[in-house]
Amino acid sequence: MTKVFFCGRLIGETNKPKSLLTSFREQRRKGQLPEEANIAYLEDINEIRIDTSDSRLRRPLIIVKNGKPLLTEKHLTKLIKGELDLEDLVKEGIIEYLDAEEEENAYIALTLKDLTAEHTHLELNPSVILGISASMVPFAPHNRSDRVNYGAKMMAQSLGIYAINYLLRPDTKAYSLIYPQHPLIDTVIYKSNILNEHPQGQNVVLAIMPYKGYNMEDAIIFNKKSVERGLFRSLFFRTYQTEEKKYWGIESDNICIPDESVKNYRTKLDYELLDEDGLAPPETEVKGGDIIIGKVSPLRFYGPVEEFLSETENRRDTSITVKFGEEGIIDRVVLTQTESGDKLIKTTVREMRIPEVGDKFASRYGQKGVIGAIVPEEDLPFTKDGIVPDVIINPMGIPSRMTIGQLIEIIYGKAAALSAQIMDETSFNETPEEEIIKILKNFGFDQNGEEEMYNGETGEKIKSKILVGPCYYQALYHMVRDKYFMRARGPTTVLTRQPTEGKAREGGLRFGEMEKDCLLAHGAALTLKERFSSDETEVPVCKNCGIVAIDNQVKGISYCPLCNKTDIVRVKISYAFKLVLDEMMAMGVYPKLHVKEEI
Q1: Which CATH superfamily is domain 536-586 in?
Q2: Most buried pick, 212, 221, 438, 481, via CB within 10 A?
Q3: How far lies 555's CA from each of 319, 542, 548, in Å?
């Protein structure tokens, strides 16, 4: 007997599983059962599972009977005229939605040509097997699957116009490309998707060739003139906010220029950007550490001393400053109020981002790289027509990644630019290459898209022909300006006395075993002396007991807390090691250090 489960609950058994399956599907197609219900027969464990639960991934497929699809030309004509839609076809039993489990029992043909008598279903279009992001990659069947995956993932990181009203929105952090373009080679998703109005990249003239080693590995070369003309220029917005909270009794925050008597008052110069209302006005240039909202708050905790302080002294400066390492211009200041009626201020800082060495870019095929050099246009190679590439990528990136789709896009993009049309190259539905070759030949170009180029520095003809043509590239939000950071001295943590962590807190750079090996390999071992002494400290250690002694700075003596002797040795150790010793002692472990005087 075959067990029958409904939404995970056992509801009965049957000795005719295949007959049950057939009759269930027939009734569902006739509308006698809900079309949301799916049935699957798992032969290996002898179970039938019926499912109507929410959140299942289901997709539409054309039903096939005796090797012929039920969807006919007559239906297609009505669909085009708008007399029918997908729901009507589902009700008529021509199309049905299958979930992942029922799909295991189906035999699905990709195209009409593949249909045989054994097939049960036919894809509406082979491209629908891809998700939204992956179906925006043209020529996907010509690439390795992981590269299509990378390309789809990096589309989410690309800059574009994420919302039409981005100048009004107070997003905490936002990037916006200034001159987005629709790709010359698009897919059907671009037309049906919001991306048709919100592009996320630019069409660049791309050459695949080495250039002086500056595009080794995945680095890319940029044309300086293209950058100056506005290529991949973007805006970065950061919104800072604060509110004037009301506390117990009459206490509340105050948005103003702090008075000299408040706690943590800085200098008069630090508050010079603020207007009388305590806010820096729009179009003010600011940099990291500048105060843009002046604010005074009451002290958090009342102690015996604070109770006797006057009103002004019982307050501290809690002004809002621009993040360390960032700069820009104040774009807008919004004054509103919260649900509880407190005053709310939002200040947005705008920064123009121009591509620089280290910024990350990617094609739609997972060919990602950072700028290795920005070269003057007159030094770059050019074609006989005087076309200079905007971007140069390394040829070695193609054979190892097998992204043949990018090579095809350059050739098709060339034909699209010459014939002044946007080409729809949805996966599995590409334009035949004969048509592209015809266009290229009509305009006097090679069928493989290669051209003779000339050295920009010497004027000599380059011996090899070079593949050059339009390709859609995306600027990603991984910009070197947000990442690079260095420090010499700076703040340390109270507990371990080591430098703070992270760029935002002006932290130190963690120097580990591998970094140490690099310095040794370079013969720069002496630099390790300072690298590994960020928390160096001198502690008194008892020669007898071997534990850290006590320094009585008032009396000017050091003594051991265990044996009370003053036979002390001063030892230089890492403060983190001293902290470990203290924690061990707190757990009742006796860590004894064997020390002796240095001769």
Answers
A1: RNA polymerase alpha subunit dimerisation domain (3.90.1800.10)
A2: 221
A3: 42, 18, 18
